[in-house]
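Good morning C.,

I know you're traveling, so I'll keep this short. The sequence:
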Amino acid sequence: MPDNTISDNIQTTPRTGYMPQLNTLRTFAVLQVLVSHWLNHNDFINLIPLGSTGVILFFVLSGFLITQILLESRISAEAKNQNKFHAIRQFYIRRTLRIFPIYYITIFILFIFNIGEIRDSFLWFFFYSSNYFFYIVHDLTIWHGPLAHLWTLAVEEQFYIIWPFIIMFTPRKYLFKAILLIICLGPVSRIFFFIINQNSPALSFYTILTPSCIDIFGLGAVLAYFKVYKNKVLQFKTKGMVIFLIIYAIVFTTLLQFQVSYISPIFFAFNIALLAFFLIAKVSVGFKGFLKIIFENRALIYLGQISYGLYLYHPLLARVFLKFEFPFHNMYIRFAIQSVVLVIVASISWFLIEKPINNLKKHFSYD
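The tokens, ready to paste straight into the viewer:
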């Protein structure tokens, strides 16, 4: 582990530039979720739990980007002797502008039509606490319905509540150690919840609680720490990284298929997050050659840009499709058609709602 002391000559740091390849990574993450939810679970494609891996990739990426923003804001505030609470306020305003509008539009539509019987539990979704609702009721009927994916947004919002204060106010010399402690908290939490829920129907739901996910965000924070404070990114040679990831994925998937009890409930998330850690480290620098062509494909970058809408709307769209007699019974044709319609819906949402509201963030800069 590299030395985690911070140079005294750090005064300020420029805002990180746009990293287009990360948007393509978002596209691949949301595609995993779509495949998991829309294709037959008995299909060979879903031998690996793609929905979970896609969500974990989102979480690590969120931990990286959010921590990077907060660290840059902290350094800027310290250099200018500004109140750090100003930066935190700006962070919350900007996050609100990005996340809240279409989320609340979606849950109010769900409420109006009582889709998934949301009226009985609406306040849980309104206050971004649906992950705890699922844990408490442990109802598989609801879990497999059109509301289930909202737990991930609840976890993100709960992470946003505590993380800015940890990053902004932890003494600088202890900050990296604090991040490592947070990473350790995730597996410890999962072990704790695993033990207390062994004889409970809620056993399968404890992994969606925020303490059980915190190490996933923390791994992304490690990348941000090195990029901002060390002025470097943890880099890995592409060939070696690919070989390692393939071997690691084969071993891990084998253990998963044999249902090794301690792998799935306790260490599954960390293992996938570790794979995402290496991948994001490389993508944040930028692939070269053939992979660069793929990751800088304009269509893939665009889909990553609208990935929030793709993720948020996809269960509703599937629900609408179920109402109609579909002329194609092949699930891959159905998947392709639903995907096209979803992109159209998410694009409309982006240009009519999200982008105009997102542009308001220019009035709430961190400086």
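Safe travels,
E.
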